[in-house]
Design a protein that fits this description.
about 425 residues; Rossmann fold; 6-stranded parallel beta sheet; 5-stranded parallel beta sheet; 14 strands; about 50% helix; amino-acid biosynthesis
Length: about 425
């Protein structure tokens, strides 16, 4: 890994993380796909599936028989692990649930907020370099707990024309209603606009490649989206008390996602930097996905030497990482200095992979610095709120003059009239 100073890294962080030119090239292809699916529906989906996934499909929807077949293709150990994870994830997200509320601030006035789940949500599950049953849980379980009536998944088919069995089993365990064998930007188009087979949704959630991310950006407004996810990233803040092998393993756990992933470690002394770098090189050699992780580490890996932990957390807040691990002597004491991070892992035995699969908090997190203003996926992403207002005749009459004054100041006479006509009517009674 590149070992650099804090000042040099600070300069790197001031540069744009996205390439306008690269996005422009992507957008040209993505917009063509969106337009084609909107125009030609299922026919376009089948054509793109044959072109990109090299699979010809008779039907897009996963059948009941395929769900049953999938159950026989996964191990009992997988089922047991997923059941345990499901319990943790559901329990955590249950705590986020919001409820409608009402208040009476004064006589004759009732105000409130009505919380309503979305009707139909689409979840994109990647299926290219790996299968992600954990992502099914992280997206579908919060939607289910929120009370979403219809939850559907789109995911690319395998070369045999079927969906990965682990994904299908997870979908059934999470209460997903429909699964479709469609991937890429064309899947986002189908969810946003609807086709003969796939009905339009209210919101699209879930991670994907660059084409999926740009497609989500372009359909926003037609439907809601969770976020525009970039490459995965981790930041480990460590001092001399950390286990270098643990820190290295966690950095590589993100590097193996894809070549664009970023693994950043911030330390407060040169010896710790050297030990972690040695461990990264040692462990990298034994990885199954060595080629991907090596490219990620070479391009985006950094070990940053800060003057002290105060400077380390200043850099953390500038980076606003998706995942932040605090591997210091007293990690709980350092929590107060973190302002921007998607998920925060405290101590040597709370690795990022714990959050990926098992602990309960969501692993769909803001990336590319968006943790400075965005939050992890949660129950709140699958609910909408309506304001409730009720005034009695007497209460409204007291407010009418103030309403009319503000309306006239803005030059909106009809607004003022709507208040004055009611006050006048109440005097006539």
């Amino acid at each position: 890994m590149k070992i650099i100073t804090a000042s040099k890294y600070r300069k790197e962080l001031t540069k744009s993380r996205g390439s306008i030119e690269k996005n422009a090239q992507l957008d040209e292809a993505v917009l063509a796909i969106l337009s084609e699916v909107r125009k030609n529906g299922d026919e376009a989906l089948r054509r793109y599936t044959e072109q990109f996934d090299l699979v010809s499909l008779d039907t897009l929807r996963v059948s009941d028989e395929e769900f049953q077949e999938a159950k026989g293709m996964v191990s009992p150990e997988f089922i047991a692990a997923m059941e345990a994870a499901k319990e943790n994830i559901a329990s955590f997200h249950q705590e986020q649930k919001e409820h409608s509320w009402f208040t009476q601030p004064q006589s004759g006035v009732m105000l409130g907020q009505k919380v309503t789940p979305l009707s139909r949500v689409g979840i994109y599950i990647p299926g290219g370099k790996a299968a992600y049953p954990s992502t099914v849980f992280m997206n579908a379980l919060p939607a289910k707990i929120a009370g979403v009536l219809s939850i559907i998944i789109t995911t690319p088919p395998q070369k045999n024309g079927k969906v990965n069995p682990h994904v299908l089993v997870a979908a059934e365990m999470a209460g997903v209603n429909e699964v479709y064998k469609v991937g890429g930007a064309q899947a986002i188009a189908a969810l946003a606009y609807g086709t003969e087979t796939i009905s339009k949704v209210n919101k699209i959630v879930g991670p994907g490649n660059a084409f999926v991310a740009r497609a989500k950006k372009w359909v926003y407004g037609e439907v809601a989206i969770d976020m525009i996810a970039g490459p995965s990233e981790i930041c480990v803040v460590a001092d001399r008390t950390c286990h270098p092998s643990f820190a290295a393993a966690d950095l590589l756990s993100q590097a193996e996602h894809d070549e664009e992933a970023a693994a950043i470690c911030i330390v407060n002394d040169e010896e710790t930097a050297r030990l972690i770098d040695e461990e990264v090189n040692k462990q990298l050699a034994a990885l199954e996905r060595k080629q991907i992780a090596e490219k990620s580490i070479e391009t985006n890996g950094r070990i940053v030497i800060a003057a002290d932990l105060t400077e380390a957390f200043e850099l953390v807040n500038l980076l606003a990482p998706e995942h932040l691990e605090i591997m210091t002597e007293n990690p709980m004491e350092q929590l107060q200095f973190v302002q921007n991070a998607g998920a925060i892992f405290l101590g040597d035995h709370s690795p990022e992979v714990l959050g990926d699969y098992f602990a309960g908090p969501n692993h769909t997190l803001p990336t590319s610095g968006t943790a400075a203003f965005a939050s992890p996926l949660g129950i709140y992403d699958f609910m909408k709120k309506s304001s409730i207002i009720h005034y009695s005749q007497a209460a409204f009459s007291k407010a009418a003059d103030s309403i009319a004054t503000i309306a006239k100041t803005e030059g909106l006479g009809a607004h003022a009239r709507a208040a004055e006509i009611r006050k006048a009517a109440s005097k006539d009674r």
